[in-house]
Amino acid sequence: MISAGIIGGAGYTAGELLRILLRHPDVSLDFIFSTSQAGSPVSSIHQDLMGETALRFSGNINPEVDVVFLCLGHGNSIEFLKNNPFSKDTKVIDLSTDYRMHSNDHSFVYGLPEFKKEEIKKAQFIANPGCFATAISLAVLPLAGEKLLKDELHINAVTGATGAGTSLSATSHFTWRDNNFSAYKEFEHQHLKEIGQSVQLFQPNFNFEINFIPNRGNFSRGIFATTYTNFDGSLEDAKAMYDTYYKDSAFTFVIEEEVHLKQVVNTNKCLMNLQKHKSKLLITSVIDNLLKGASGQAVQNMNLMFGFPEDQGLQLKASYF
């Protein structure tokens, strides 16, 4: 049994972590740190946990925990770790953008298990990938691994309202989101750097544009991403390549059927479908942005770091109806 702490316990990703870790057979929750909610019952914020836990938010941390999850706003993790050192044995999993790029801190391993599983197993510090970056990187890494990305990538992806976090803004209010759809940060979303970094580690000579249009959907959770590029081989060639790449994956599956969000919401799965249209290979990928795109993947990384079964505590079921 390992002890775990959560920093920034009042947000969406922390809530998902709590739901998973409270049921994880190998984890004991030591503290849930929140400056805004210190002393309040955890279930007063994460109300679906009423009757399941008596834990309260804490204004203090235990620096000796075995693992700590940082669920802080982007830009805050570096400062927090600087001011709140943990023991030399504590493993750190950061869910923000702060350590995802190699230039920021080389001791952090980029935590995409389908990409760096063996490094994650040996790591003490993990930079958990972004949600868009997870869905899109999983769609293109088999091609990059075979050095078969020979043209621009074109990506259109839609995310649910929880992707914006709990802080309200003009575009996250219900009255704006409901019955609405919009694009944002066209061609310059922050996850582009992550995607490019992963692709170039596999295919260093890749120097084409990654054209990414993110969209806001009028649903709560999930990411639906379509990626296409020129591909010389047949559809059967592509399917064989993807099946080989993901044959040992615990959560990523290439399926024959067309994919949709209800297959993956409330799970840690990524489902993909491949189609060939003349010279174009189309890869459609779907994930839950809060689970495979954040907290579920963080627990998947924790399992690998501590030698637990990769899917321990993550046998989650989709809410199909």
From TrEMBL:
One CC-aspect GO term: cytoplasm
Pfam family, one: Semialdhyde_dhC_1
Pathway: Amino-acid biosynthesis; L-arginine biosynthesis; N(2)-acetyl-L-ornithine from L-glutamate: step 3/4
Main location: cytoplasm
Active-site residues, Swiss-Prot/TrEMBL: 131
InterPro entries listed in its UniProt record: AGPR (IPR050085), AGPR_AS (IPR023013), AGPR_dimerisation_dom (IPR058924), AGPR_type-1 (IPR000706), NAD(P)-bd_dom_sf (IPR036291), Semialdehyde_DH_NAD-bd (IPR000534)
Domain of life, source organism: Bacteria
The Semialdehyde dehydrogenase NAD-binding domain, residue ranges: 3-123
Keyword annotations from UniProtKB, A to Z: Amino-acid biosynthesis, Arginine biosynthesis, Cytoplasm, NADP, Oxidoreductase
Location within or outside the cell: Cytoplasm
EC identifiers of the protein: 1.2.1.38
An example Gene Ontology biological process: L-arginine biosynthetic process
Gene3D superfamilies associated with the record: Dihydrodipicolinate Reductase, domain 2, NAD(P)-binding Rossmann-like Domain
MF (Gene Ontology): N-acetyl-gamma-glutamyl-phosphate reductase activity; NAD binding; NADP+ binding
Function: Catalyzes the NADPH-dependent reduction of N-acetyl-5-glutamyl phosphate to yield N-acetyl-L-glutamate 5-semialdehyde.
Similarity remark: Belongs to the NAGSA dehydrogenase family. Type 1 subfamily.
Protein name: N-acetyl-gamma-glutamyl-phosphate reductase
Organism ancestry: Bacteria, Pseudomonadati, Bacteroidota, Flavobacteriia, Flavobacteriales
